[in-house]
Design goal:
10 strands, 5-stranded mixed sheet
Length: 325
């Protein structure tokens, strides 16, 4: 026997409210319409649904069972409505983000946590990707947006790039590195110590090549490669090695893993960190809300980074501070 779900919902509302008029008002219906529905339901099951002569209305055993199912339908309908509203507002759903490893580890992962504190119903799936893989993942609908440093390279009209942080690289080392005592560094000084190679595919690899060209060298003594951000930091702290790192990444680690900026000007890439998306593909509200959060977080952060950059890089004071700002 198939029963009309709307009739079950109306039965549940009437019993919860204690009367037909009250239940109809709860559902936004008229009293005659609800009365007809209940009469149709009783005729369908062939049994009374209410105890005679009881006010407020009380259900028979069968009426109570059917009302329980009606309440389940009402709750499911409300949850479905909430899900639709949450999707439209971007407060529920899935965000798939790809990002270059060092920036994701140093800065963006914490921003993801802050976003989910505000939007606990949004799930974020993160992938480590460099630019070529990121472009392919966007075109293949595997990610919603990417966070990547991009230079003058033109990806074509199908992509949109929103800058969130200007790029600047430095040479990083441990605070008591021998070169930190030399304030008149020459290019040859950089070749006398081992280096850490960036991750394969990282834009930092081309930046390292720019340094080689600027000092007239074809190769450096690379002693360590392939490490995560934390492993590179730990390696630098324990050795006399040097590494090319974005200043913002070093800034983000200044409290827990203080490193030094070597007082040597290196060629700077024409590159900025930003959000990469496809122009034409529909964007989920959750992904749009997430992107706005990342943009705002970097907007607050980049002025602080710039202030430290001017003091440490241009001022060549070397050691990153650990102040709260």
């Amino acid at each position: 026997m198939k029963l009309n779900e709307r009739h079950l919902m109306q039965l549940a509302a009437v019993l919860s409210a204690g009367g037909v008029s009250e239940g109809a008002a709860m559902l936004g219906l008229t009293q005659p319409a609800v009365s007809r529905s209940l009469a149709m339901l009783e005729a369908r099951v062939g049994e009374p649904l209410f105890q005679k002569g009881r006010r407020p209305l009380q259900a028979t055993p069968l009426g109570a069972q059917l009302a329980a199912q009606g309440r389940t339908i009402i709750n499911a309908s409300r949850k479905a409505s909430d899900a639709v509203q949450g999707f439209i507002k971007g407060t529920t759903g899935l965000v798939r983000v790809g990002g270059v490893p060092f920036f994701m580890d140093a800065m963006v992962s914490a921003m993801i946590g802050e976003f989910q504190n505000q939007e606990p119903e949004v799930t974020v799936q993160q992938s480590y990707l460099n630019l070529p893989e990121m472009a392919a993942a966007l075109e293949g609908s595997q990610i919603d947006l990417g966070i990547v440093p991009i230079g003058v390279l033109d990806l074509g009209p199908g992509f949109e790039f929103r800058e969130i942080l200007p790029g600047r690289n430095i040479v990083a080392c441990r605070p008591d590195h021998p070169l930190m005592r030399n304030h008149r560094l020459k290019a040859d000084d950089l070749t006398t110590f081992p280096w850490v190679a960036p991750l394969p595919g990282s834009p930092l690899m081309s930046d390292l090549q720019m340094i080689l060209m600027s000092i007239g060298m074809s190769d450096l003594n690379v002693r360590y490669s392939g490490g995560s951000l934390m492993s590179v930091i730990n390696y630098l702290v324990a050795t006399d090695a040097l590494a090319v790192l974005p200043f913002s990444v070093l800034f983000a680690q200044r409290k827990d893993n203080p490193l030094a900026v070597l007082p040597y000007e290196i060629p700077q890439p024409n590159r900025s960190l930003g959000i990469l998306r496809l122009v034409s593909r529909p964007r989920s509200p959750a992904a749009e809300r997430f992107a706005a959060h990342i943009i705002n977080a970097f907007e607050d952060l980049k002025h602080i980074i710039k202030r430290h950059e001017n003091a440490v890089v241009w001022g060549l004071s070397g050691r990153l501070g650990t102040s709260a700002d």
